[in-house]
């Protein structure tokens, strides 16, 4: 069962801000991105490795972001399991074999790939809200 959206935002923010790996590598992790989980969308603003804001279900013109990661709720649920099944362990596997897409300024994603990947890995502990 998915956690309430507000609880998930709080847990995701705390997990990301307190993660030793993001703290070590996140000095330049400054960007805005959107996680489209089909049932909910989350715009996340990062500054120097810290989550400064998360907008829940923004409208198409409400917020700006540099890239987005879109997948079905089922794909995100599989990402959020403690031990993800094959092809759900990372964004590349899910992009090649599942329904995940990467859109927008992919250069910004690549520049922040290690920290962003770590945030996706944190879904295994905080779950997903879909």
What is the CATH class name? Alpha Beta
- Mean model confidence by pLDDT: 94
The rounded Rg comes to 13 Å
Number of strands: 5
* CATH architecture group name: 2-Layer Sandwich
**What can be said about the biggest beta sheet?**
5 strands, mixed
Label the structural class: alpha+beta
CATH topology: Nonspecific Lipid-transfer Protein, Chain A
Order of SSEs, N→C?
HHEEEEHHEHH
| N-to-C CA distance | 8 Å
Number of domain modules: 1
Number of helices: 6
Q: Spans of 5+ residues with little confidence (pLDDT < 50)?
A: none
State the fourth-level CATH superfamily.
SCP2 sterol-binding domain
Give the overall shape, derived from the CA principal axes.
Answer: globular
Strand order of the main beta sheet, please? 3-2-1-4-5
Protein name: SCP2 domain-containing protein
Give a quick set of tags describing it:
130 residues; alpha+beta; Nonspecific Lipid-transfer Protein, Chain A; 5-stranded mixed β-sheet; 5 strands; globular; SCP2_sterol-bd_dom_sf; SCP2 domain-containing protein
Describe the structure.
The chain has 130 residues and is α+β, with helices and mostly antiparallel strands. The chain has a single domain, classed as SCP2 sterol-binding domain (Nonspecific Lipid-transfer Protein, Chain A), CATH 3.30.1050.10. The protein is 41% helix and 22% strand. Strands 3-2-1-4-5 form a 5-stranded mixed β-sheet. Strand 2 and strand 3 form a beta hairpin. The radius of gyration is 13 Å and the shape is globular. It starts with a helix and ends with a helix. 29% of the residues are buried. This is SCP2 domain-containing protein. It comes from Planosporangium thailandense.
């Amino acid at each position: 069962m998915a956690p309430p959206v507000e609880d998930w935002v709080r847990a995701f923010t705390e997990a990301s801000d307190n993660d030793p790996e993001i703290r070590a590598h996140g000095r330049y992790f400054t960007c805005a991105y959107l996680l489209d989980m089909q049932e909910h969308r989350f715009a996340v603003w990062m500054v120097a490795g810290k989550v400064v804001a998360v907008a829940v279900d923004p409208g198409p013109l409400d917020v700006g972001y540099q890239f987005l990661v879109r997948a079905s709720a089922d794909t995100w649920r599989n990402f959020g399991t403690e031990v993800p099944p094959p092809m759900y362990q990372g964004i590349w596997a899910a992009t090649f074999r599942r329904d995940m897409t990467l859109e927008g300024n992919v250069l910004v994603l690549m520049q922040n790939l290690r920290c962003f990947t770590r945030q996706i890995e944190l879904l295994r502990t905080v779950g997903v809200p879909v």
